[in-house]
Amino acid sequence: MHALFEIPPVQPASSARRPPGSDPDELLRGLNAQQRAAVVHAGSPLLIVAGAGSGKTRVLTHRIAYLLAARDVTPGQIMAITFTNKAAGEMRERVAGLVGPRGRRMWVSTFHSACVRILRAEHEHAGLKSTFSIYDADDSRRLMQLVARELDLDPKRYPARSLAAQVSNLKNELVDESTFTARASGPAERALAEAYSSYQQRLRQAHALDFDDLIMTTVRLLQTFPDVAEHYHRRFRHILVDEYQDTNHAQYVLIKELVGRSPEAPSDLDDVAASAPELLADGAPLGPAELCVVGDADQSIYAFRGATIRNIMEFERDFPDAETILLEQNYRSTQTILNAANRVIERNSERKPKNLWSDSGPGEKIVGYVADNEHDEADWVAKEIDRLVDDEGYKPADVAVFYRTNAQSRVFEDIFIRFGVPYKVVGGVRFYERKEVRDALAYLRAIANPDDVVSVRRILNTPRRGIGERAEACVDALASKENISFGAALERAGEAVGISSRAVKGIGDFTTIMAEVRQMAATEPPEDVLEAVLARSGYLAELEESDDPQDAGRVENLQELVSVAREYTERIQRAAAAGDADEDAGPDPEIEETPSLAGFLEQVALVADADEIPDDDGEQSGVVTMMTLHTAKGLEFPVVFLTGMEDGVFPHMRSMGDKRELEEERRLAYVGITRARQRLYISRAVTRSAWGQPQYNPESRFVPELPSELIDWKRTADAYTSWTRGGVGRGESAQYRGPSSALTNGPKSQALAGKLGLDPKLVGAASEMRQVPSLSPGDRVNHDRHGLGRVVAVQGSGPRAQAQIDFGDQTMWIVLRHAPIQKL
DNA sequence: TTACTACTGTTTTTT
DNA sequence: ACAGTAGTAA
Known about the structure:
This protein is an alpha/beta fold and 824 residues long. It has 5 domains: 24-123 and 216-327, P-loop containing nucleotide triphosphate hydrolases (Rossmann fold); 133-206, Arc Repressor Mutant, subunit A (Orthogonal Bundle); 335-426 and 613-719, 3-Layer(aba) Sandwich (Rossmann fold); 432-605, PCRA, domain 4 (Orthogonal Bundle); 741-823, Thrombin, subunit H (Beta Barrel). It is built from 34 helices and 21 strands. The strands form 4 sheets. Strands 9, 10, 11, 12, 13, 14, 15 and 16 form an 8-stranded mixed beta sheet that branches. A 6-stranded parallel beta sheet has the order 3-2-6-7-1-8, with helices on both faces. A 5-stranded antiparallel beta sheet has the order 20-19-18-17-21, with no helix packed on it. A hairpin with a 4-residue loop joins strand 19 (802-806) and strand 20 (811-815). Helix 6 packs across helix 11, helix 11 (211-224) packs across helix 12 and helix 20 (435-448) packs across helix 24 (501-521). The radius of gyration is 29 Å and the shape is globular. 42% of the residues are buried. The structure holds a DNA duplex (15 and 10 nucleotides).
């Protein structure tokens, strides 16, 4: 990506408008008929229904390139919306690869980034303060906690987390607080209404917007100020939306506002607008912008955060003259994998039939494995990856391991480390979610925006400055009495009633440091500001002096954050330089010219993926990628392991009661299956320890939905049953199968369930017996009575295995079978 | 009044 | 095993 910035394509200045490769015919070569139709389609709104692996990204990038090359659209007239910032970056580079550097001068971003840009620009235009904090889910929860405490809501009945989630849903539906307050009935809704309006009030006072606000406020802005809407309407003549099935109501309305609502305008003006927008005088009528959305209802997996497939299902009703193009040919997977995917997804009701096909042949069978427990499952995956690499010519980078929840990655990490399988976990405990990183960012946010309550309160007493709950409450009281922000009240802490002199001194120290660093932030780049505030506040010193070994890692993470800031600064400077050099496109006022603290914070808030999906570096063998099924959307791998195929895990326990949620889980399964190009593995564990206790989980209901003739089972549940208890034979093991678990069936199966799965003693013994051989010298363990220890030696095997363990104060031999011991 | 230790429920998925 | 809470020591 960076290389592209540094090495502009070689071309004579005169041909800059038509660089090699932007010949329209060239752009259409290698596309099938449907793809071509989608690329060249002009005029009416277009819905591209793209099955998994049907080359939808290609169609989108080629369409953009085609607009630029064949239809004389300028890059400034295009707004493309993608699901992640990473996808946006890739799309920009791909278009640039097709039409040259001017392809980078489009708005390609997520909904949230686009809204931030619009809001910032409009705030500046109106002469308002344009620095605002962006609150993520955790910040929102913290703010809601303040609100709930203020309103005296019972934290049991109304936990802040749930209030924040409900408010988020309301905002996604564009229900603002006054509307909701007016219609709220019953105590629960009234409490929510109160919380909602108080929360909004506090957000505004903090000059903060949460993720949902970004969309909602932009929609309101466009709806309330027709001249603003007109401005963007004139500017953006082409709106393209990727992953349309994952848009929520607010995003749908935003799209409508951007496209414009004047279909009655003469359509020939479109052509004028496209070729020479400056010829259109202000006030001349302008038709709607050209809209093109791409999506697949079968891959809608974000209903839990407000996405509605309604948007894609009803597209033709929302935009009456719309056309639809279906892409069914799959260029990614073998027919075996596609058949499996088709058979799973066809179980969903209310679905437009779609049949993926491929001409790449049947390929290998799907490989299945039933492990005794989650360690065995990981063990088998690791061995199989080894085999694929050694015997079948795959690289680790070709392989992906998917699971339903982030917590499941731990076992794989343990085993992969032991086996020496190189891996990378994408997502999970993300860099930006670590305490020290969030603290450091809170300092920066408090510097950029002193009114940001959540950030200020987060770091006010970190490190300890003798400012406790009591003192905070006094300042809060002062703030509401004087009707000023919490940050402003801190400056006048001395006036607070009932505050202790110790706290006043602590607050004085704090405000002095912040004022100093704030001054510095006006001129210095973010990385220097960050280093300064970490040093001045004593935050870094406290970590460095600590003897907790974890804190060394925290210091490293902070250094990492400093280099992220430095990279940001360098990137902005480089982009500014590249912009100057790129005369064809002219200066782009949208591109930020100078690195700023606000810009850095914005990037950090919106670009979640610091842990990037490893790029395929071709030559080197790379690493195995591990991620949740949700993160896997939009990616593809030659080899895919779908793990944890158990009812309760996947589909997740919480979604099994509800038909709609269950269908979403099924779509998630469909997404997982269709990520695989050549090989698909499915695995499950008969027992899995969750929250301390071993749990018996029946086979995922999605497994029997796969055609059994496509699966080659390397190990089945029979192996487990005959191994644990001789008495349980093959026939009865059929009780494992199927969605209706033994729990709900007749008395006979209840007894069986009790015997097999639900008796903790038996299952505990089974998993202990398996865990015994996996302890080896050097392993760290935790003993319920003796605490942390390290294995010195191991003796015996099976139920008689013993280990010599060093607990620091004493070293002892322990019979592992009965020991309350866990491997770390 | 603040700070430290011990305990408890907790985790679905994410821009 | 994590973070937020509750109880206690200073």
